[in-house]
Amino acid sequence: MDVLWLIPLLLVPLLMWSSGTFVFYFKKCFYVGWMMVLALLAIPLCMLKSGGRDVENMRIIRVLVRHVKYFLGLRFDVSGWEHLQTEGPYVIISNHQSSLDVLGLMEILPDRCTMIAKKELVYAGTVGLICWLGGIVFINRKKTSDAKSVMAEAAQTMLDQQIRLWVFPEGTRNQKEDLLPFKKGAFHLAVQAQVPIIPVVFSSYRNFYLRKEKRFNSGTVRLRILPKIETKGMTSDDISSLCDKSFDLMQAAFRERLRLQTHEQRAVEGAEHSPRSRLLFPPTSPSETCLPRPPVPLPAPPPLLSPRFPIAWPCHEISSCLVDAWSGRPLARPVSAVCPDPHCACSSSSTCTTTSSTSTSSSAALQAVSGMTDGRIDACCSSCMTEGSGHHQFLLCFLPF
Ligand SMILES: CCCCCCCC/C=C\CCCCCCCC(=O)SCCNC(=O)CCNC(=O)[C@H](O)C(C)(C)COP(=O)(O)OP(=O)(O)OC[C@H]1O[C@@H](n2cnc3c(N)ncnc32)[C@H](O)[C@@H]1OP(=O)(O)O
Ligand SMILES: CCCCCCCC/C=C\CCCCCCCC(=O)OC[C@@H](O)COP(=O)(O)O
């Protein structure tokens, strides 16, 4: 009789090892349960620190949530930190795939930043209470007029109390291959307060988390912080174009990442359903998962055409397509050139972090610039610097057919 308690103790690891569906439910229950417990811990700490609802409580919440990723086998890889180095209030907008977004959000959450959330969240037990204590602004999505007036008030509070706000402009969770059309509230907020917008793009979770298929493997989420979009001088007439511009930038970054993910995914097929992939941390690079792999030393980076510009090599976004994950052979030839891409998102003073070039015309233009005609441009323009003349230096990733 005494040994009966051993059964679940042995059964859980066995099921974890053998069943992906079990892992899915186990991890989800653990996540919700553990967040509830953490919130319970955080409540007295927040009360002691600030005596009630205060954005400063987000520091405590941030510290407490940071370790949860290790239990779930998730890694966060952040690029574009420099774009968060902006003084004063701003609005952060990001895509929203799942409640797991909270983990990524807490990885980069700046000081004095809180969120806009649906009002139902306040009823989520201890989590609801901690959201309230953290100063989260609750809106009633079903009553637009109420939501608008709450957000107009929030714009004023942002300025009065120097607060930053994080909004999910899709307005709901979305796991599709494209972002949902953006709601306008975040842009009204930024224009009313005359503060910049900082877009943040979470890479798709589909390579490790599939709600319908009941899969929750280990995986890496790439968070890309894009350059800020200024709203100084804008009025309500500019809301639509601001919203469209932000959407286009984020959609391009999301799709570009998704394309690279699909490329990497092919390399790890087969390993995908192994217990290792469900339970352990993901390897740091796709090539690590590819066995056997001949020990081919990587070639030294070729000299850039214009040494005047300090371009990092290999740059983060492109590095994943520089080497064939199976053979280790170099796939792409990085070259430096002036960016002819009309969609290039370089802004005059900052480092360019995004642009994707899929249209035939810009692809042809890039090929002409790079002098290579026997291949396809897979990704272009990363770590691009702006020359005095307004030309953009960038790297091309060139895949031979
Ligand atoms: C240790 C502790 C451990 C504990 C762990 C837990 C810690 C947790 C901590 C932290 C976690 C926090 C995690 C939070 C996550 C929550 C996420 C969510 O809940 S996502 C859902 C809610 N979010 C939104 O919905 C986005 C914001 N929504 C909007 O901005 C919408 O625009 C909204 C609701 C204001 C209106 O939505 P409409 O569906 O009516 O659609 P539209 O097209 O945008 O607006 C209709 C018209 O109203 C105008 N409008 C919108 N906002 C306006 C405004 N502010 N002023 C004037 N006009 C406005 C628009 O321009 C549009 O008019 P025209 O079509 O252009 O003519
Ligand atoms: C009454 C609803 C409350 C649901 C929350 C259940 C408790 C969750 C417990 C632990 C998770 C901690 C993170 C909580 C913050 C995540 C909130 C969230 O992601 O809400 C979903 C909302 O953005 C969009 O909702 P819909 O997709 O429109 O639906």
TrEMBL record:
Pfam families recorded: Acyltransferase
Ranges annotated as biased composition (Basic and acidic residues): 266-275
One function term, GO molecular function aspect: 1-acylglycerol-3-phosphate O-acyltransferase activity
Pathways involved: Phospholipid metabolism; CDP-diacylglycerol biosynthesis; CDP-diacylglycerol from sn-glycerol 3-phosphate: step 2/3
Positions of region (Disordered): 266-290
GO CC terms, sorted: endoplasmic reticulum; membrane
InterPro entries assigned to the protein according to its UniProt record, in alphabetical order: AGP_acyltrans, Plipid/glycerol_acylTrfase
Domain called Phospholipid/glycerol acyltransferase: residue spans: 90-205
Protein family according to the UniProt entry: Belongs to the 1-acyl-sn-glycerol-3-phosphate acyltransferase family.
PANTHER family: 1-ACYL-SN-GLYCEROL-3-PHOSPHATE ACYLTRANSFERASE
Chain's role: Converts 1-acyl-sn-glycerol-3-phosphate (lysophosphatidic acid or LPA) into 1,2-diacyl-sn-glycerol-3-phosphate (phosphatidic acid or PA) by incorporating an acyl moiety at the sn-2 position of the glycerol backbone.
UniProt-recorded name of the protein: 1-acyl-sn-glycerol-3-phosphate acyltransferase
Organism the protein comes from: Gasterosteus aculeatus aculeatus (three-spined stickleback)
